[in-house]
Amino acid sequence: MSSFSVTEPSKRIKWFAGTMVILYALITMIPLAWIMMTGFKTPPDSISYPPKVIFEPSLEGYVNLFTTRTRIAPDDLAALPPPETWYDEIVRDRNMVIAGPSKFGERFVNSVIIGFGSTFLSIFLGTLAAYAFSRFKIPLADDLLFFILSTRMMPPIAVAIPIFLMYRNLGLSDTHLGMILLYTAVNISLAVWLLKGFIDEIPREYEEAALIDGYTRFQAFYKVVLPQAATGIASTAIFCLIFAWNEYAFAVLLTSATAQTAPPFIPTIIGVGGLDWPAVAAGATIFLLPVMIFTILLRKHLLRGITFGAVRK
Amino acid sequence: MAQIQISNIRKDFGDFTAVKESSFTIEDGEFFMLLGPSGCGKTTTLRMIAGLELPTSGEIYLDGEEISQKPPSQRDIAFVFQMFALYPHMNVRKNLSYPLISQGMPRAQVKAKIDEVAGILGIEDILNRPVGGLSGGDRQRVALGRAIVRDPKAFMMDEPLGALDAEFREHMAEELRALHDRMGATTVYVTHDQLEAMQMGDKIVVMNNSVVEQFGTPQEIYDKPATMFVADFIGSPSMNFLPFEGQVAPGEKSIDLSGFSSEVPELREGAAGNLIFGVRPENIQLNDTSAYRASVLATEYLGTTQIVTLDSPNGELKARIDADQVATVGEKVGLSFNADTVTVFDEASGRALRSSLNEGVLNNG
To answer: In this predicted complex, what is the ipTM?
Structure first.
């Protein structure tokens, strides 16, 4: 008879759990893998039926993503001097020449500025507010917290038209600042609530010890509370960044020439040269990387963050 | 080192009064205990001395200087927390150096000071360890180290032994008292454990329901309780309260206990109505010649002594007698009381009546 343990799951359960995790990972990873593969296909390969799993990789999608091209007649093409670079060569195989760089780089930089800018601002304001709610006696604190939460009780896009009009009048339309403020406004309630939970868990005695040791309240906050809240701050930052990074509807509505972010830009690639799926896929792949790297860098904090408070140390 | 004088201090939290006008003085170098049940205001009082709470009214003098509204950083008072509150993201050395760095002490001096304190507490070998993995005793020592490293004017300790297991507490209590005697530092120590207070304190303040019940040396508090609460809270088993109805006048030396005339210390004030005859278990003898009879309900053998529970005409009481004396359950015995140790209380107010025994220590409050 095999021994029975309360804490150690049985072999069969472990095997089952492992299978489920692998299955779930496959379901979520396959679309991502497909996007990444499509980025390295040629346009014909990308729309061939049945779909090609094994194909000859090409950088055409990436070249198309970063350039604008013009189609020219075969005779004119033959008259040109030989291609100078590998990407010239790829483009000419399609009877086109490079007309100039595309706007993808610029849009990507906009996404970085707006995404990280609003994340930083949300965390900065959220931490201060959460600390105040957690530690000080604030009149009507519960009502204020409820009000902050209530800003998330409807989909943000429900207020799209008022915001559109307001932004137009304030001159915030299509500006980096405008988008940073907008995403911060949406994220701040999440940041305040999450961070308040984390800061509530930090015993007050640590700050009191710092006060006794001769530090001011603010020194106690950033020297003692902040390092303790690092886990919560990191996981909150990931949530904020993911929202701001991926936001599509407001970006379409409020940005165009100067502050457009990558999400509204990527679908427009498809219009440039017909069904250019590899370029779209390449754009999506590059777009995924920052959040992926950010999340991987902070994943230890994220895991601890999610289970924070579950077990009293 | 310093004298701390608390004058009419009061703390309100909204509608709740945590401490009602309280006054007492902690002399320079004293090991001073704030004793009381949980919620009695003792920790709030301690936190007000340290500056973690500001009093609603009243004054606190540290060496004659009024400090009640100053931030803790300007008071030069160290605090040892119940849960130690060591900075978890720093190692032991950093924890110890933290109060010194805030004073802007030069690095070489900080190092020398830490080595000195580590030597006193015997924690040299753990200086570079993170605080997370330390045992309870070591954490306690580091917390003490962080308090003594900057030579403060006074130490506040909020149940510092509460988080340790019973076996280790005893040891740590001795260590703490030895450390105090060696440094001669004024120490204010909060506890709800009357044994700890009696064992370690030079002076004790007993608090209950936001007020100071009594303030004095352990002997005074034990032998001459000012209120029924103190008499009941201190000592195990606690003082016996035998209710009787009657009238007493100043100068009287005996009272009438259900027809039995019992001697008491000469009373200095009179009272009438429901009174209490208070006597400690060890001041009761089984005495067959006594007319005051009681029957034995139970006995508890404790090695050197035994506790006998008796049913007397004035209610149940406990006597502590020698272990070799024989008391059989159901037996009728006579009781006599050590007259000069008895305290008479007024039941309505809970206060002790002034007598030749306690006159010197009652603060008429």
So the answer is: 0.80
Question: Model confidence at B216, in pLDDT bands (50, 70, 90)?
Answer: very high
Domain ranges of chain A: 43-102, 105-306
| Chain B residue nearest residue A203, CA to CA | B85
Q: List residues in chain A touching B: CB distance below 8 A.
A: 203, 205-206, 208-216, 219, 224, 227-228
Encoding tokens for residue B132?
A: 């997370």
Average pLDDT over residues B78-88: 89
- Could you tell me which residue, A285 or A271, shows the higher pLDDT? A285
The alpha carbon of residue B241 is apart from the nearest alpha carbon of chain A, in Å, by 41
Domain A105-306: homologous superfamily in CATH: MetI-like (1.10.3720.10)
Tell me phi and psi for residue A42, to 5 degrees. Answer: -85, 160
The strands making up B271-279's β-sheet, listed across from edge to edge, are: B240-248, B271-279, B343-346
CA distance B150 to chain A (A): 9
Mutate to test the interface with A, among B46, B102, B110 (most CBs of A within 10 A): B102
CB contact burial B180-192 (16+ within 10 A = b; e otherwise): beeeebbbbbbbb
Is the pLDDT assigned to residue B365 strictly greater than 60? no
Q: Note whether B49 and B205 are within 8 A (CB).
A: no
- Mean of pLDDT over chain A: 88
Contact: B85, A206; criterion CB under 8 Å: yes
Interface probe with A: pick from B44, B54, B86, B98, most Cβ of A within 10 Å:
B98
Q: What does the DSSP 8-state code read for residue B71?
A: -
At residue A140, what is the residue type?
L
Mind telling me how many Å the CA of B73 is from chain A's nearest CA?
4
**For chain B, which residues make up each domain, given as ranges?**
4-223, 238-346
pLDDT value at residue A312? 39
Residues of B in contact with A214 (CB under 8 A): 73, 99, 102-103, 150
pLDDT digits (tens, 9 = 90+) for A32-68: 999 999 999 988 888 888 888 888 899 988 998 898 8
Closest Cα partner for B265 from B211, B338, B195? B338
Read off the pLDDT of residues B250-289 as tens digits, 9 standing for 90 and up: 988 988 888 888 888 999 988 888 999 999 999 999 988 8
Q: What is the pLDDT of residues B296-315, one digit of tens each?
A: 999 999 999 999 999 999 99
Amino acid (one-letter) located at B173 = A
Beta bridge partners of B61: B5, B66
B83/A212 touch (CB, cutoff 8 Å), yes or no: no
Q: Is B72 close to A216, i.e. CB distance below 8 A? A: no
Tens of pLDDT along A233-251?
998 999 999 999 999 999 9
Tokens read off for A34: 């497909």
B151-173: pLDDT as tens digits:
899 999 998 888 778 878 888 88
B238-346: CATH number? 2.40.50.140
CATH topology for B4-223 is Rossmann fold (3.40.50)
> Strand ranges (DSSP E) for chain B?
4-13, 16-26, 31-35, 57-62, 65-66, 77-80, 154-158, 186-191, 203-208, 211-216, 240-248, 254-257, 260-263, 271-279, 284-286, 293-301, 305-312, 315-322, 332-337, 343-346
Q: How far does the CA of residue B148 sit from the closest CA of chain A (Å)?
A: 11
Evaluated on CA atoms B277, B281, B286, B287, the torsion sign reads negative
Q: What is the mean pLDDT of chain B?
A: 90
